[in-house]
Amino acid sequence: MAAMVDMAVDAGVPLVEMVDVGKSYGVIQALRGVSLRVNAGEVTCVLGDNGAGKSTLIKIMSGLHQQSEGALRVDGEEVRFGSPREALDRGIATVYQDLAVVPLMEVWRNFFLGSEVRKRLWPFNPLDAEGMRRTARAELSKMGIELDDVNQPIGTLSGGQRQCVAIARAVYFGARVLILDEPTAALGVKQSGVVLRYIARARDAGLGVVLITHNPHHAYLVGDHFVVLKRGQMSLDGKRDEITLDELTQQMAGGDELEALTSELRRAQV
Ligand SMILES: Nc1ncnc2c1ncn2[C@@H]1O[C@H](COP(=O)(O)OP(=O)(O)OP(=O)(O)O)[C@@H](O)[C@H]1O
Ligand SMILES: [Mg+2]
């Protein structure tokens, strides 16, 4: 009853919602009491140090793992995904950091990789390579990725371009929620900018984006909502107008811990 009232008051039901989610791996409690909402047309950033539970959180959302406690809702309906395929069927697409690409495979083939089922929806024969090339080229160009040749092996693209191809692909195949695990971690300033621009485009196209990152500056450039995890629990949860970049940076730098480290290292030098 209370939930129904909440829903009526709240104009938009979130695409995905986690309520008090916890996850244990045997004796290790990787997540505890995590609640967050992914809204259409917004970027939700999840920040945190190594081992904070970021990947665990998105693995639950993307159907790779199941939570031990709490609820996962999609369009307001409680779900329990048995596999990533089930999450994908609900429009939740995940771009992992390593991207699982085959480096020698052509860009266009990579664009269509693993979506053979979807191809049957199209009026052309699955072996219509020319059609797939054309589509891949057009879709990439729509996202602002201009490649000389979609026949080039995906391994010849830069890390940033590869992330962008993966995002364009998820958008084309109908993702409503796009989860990105550290998409800028291995990239320089310029390439990071390119990827952040595509994230903004996906947001503007109405997708709900979940951006996992260590970098508060990247998060603040595109984020609407910020969640910081610390040892599996939420240490900060705020909308953009409730939190400054300084606060976010301070949280990520680990404030007190950094001070303690500074004095420890100074002593070590004497
Ligand atoms: N499959 C697993 N089995 C056992 N423990 C796990 C498993 N996956 C994660 N953990 C533990 O859960 C905790 C959270 O890990 P997680 O990978 O979610 O962190 P993270 O925030 O993604 O870290 P990083 O920034 O290093 O990627 C860690 O203590 C980790 O050792
Ligand atoms: Mg991780």
From TrEMBL:
This protein's name: Sugar ABC transporter ATP-binding protein
Keyword terms of this UniProt record: ATP-binding, Nucleotide-binding
Lineage, opening ranks: Bacteria, Bacillati, Actinomycetota, Actinomycetes, Micromonosporales
Residues covered by the ABC transporter domain: 16-256
Record-linked Gene3D superfamilies: P-loop containing nucleotide triphosphate hydrolases
InterPro entries attached to this UniProt entry: AAA+_ATPase, ABC_carbohydrate_import_ATPase, ABC_transporter-like_ATP-bd, ABC_transporter-like_CS, P-loop_NTPase
Xref: SUPFAM superfamilies: P-loop containing nucleoside triphosphate hydrolases
UniProt xrefs under CDD domains: ABC_Carb_Monos_I
GO molecular function, one term: ATP hydrolysis activity
Presence of the UniProt keyword Nucleotide-binding in the record: yes
Record carries keyword ATP-binding: yes
Domain of life: Bacteria
Pfam family, one: ABC_tran
